[in-house]
Amino acid sequence: MPKRTGIVLEFYMFMKENKTYWLAPIIVVILLMAGLIILGGLGGGAGAPFIYSLF
Questions:
Q1: Is 54 strand, coil or helix?
Q2: CA 1 to CA 17: how far, in whole Å?
Q3: Which residues, including other chains, have CB under 8 Å from residue 23's CB and lie 6 or more apart?
Q4: Helices 7-18 + 23-41 axis angle, to 10
Q5: Per-residue confidence of the chain (55 residues) as pLDDT tens digits?
Q6: CB contact set of 51 (below 8 Å; sequence gap of 6+)
Q7: Where are the domains positioned within the chain?
Q8: Using alpha carbons only, what angle is made at residue 5 by residues 21 and 3, rounded to the nearest 5 degrees?
Q9: Cβ(23)–Cβ(15) under 8 Å?
């Protein structure tokens, strides 16, 4: 039975093997922006004042 790895470990191994470490900051920024979008949409915009204060 092959060893199962998580998607994060698999992505890390991909970056290590192909020497594409520059992808890591891009992925982090995309995830942070997605989190802000989700936070802004929750509860009819209840998180909007907090997002507004960031910018």
A1: helix
A2: 23
A3: 15
A4: 150
A5: 667 779 989 999 999 999 999 999 999 999 999 988 888 787 677 777 777 787 7
A6: 36, 39, 40
A7: 7-37
A8: 130
A9: yes
- Per-position DSSP letters for 18-37, written without gaps between them: HT-TTHHHHHHHHHHHHHHH
Q: Residue 44 gets which letter from DSSP?
A: G
CB atoms within 10 A of CB 39: 15
- Written as six digits, the tokens of 21 are 């470490």
Angle formed at CA 38 by CA 35 and CA 31, multiple of 5 degrees:
25
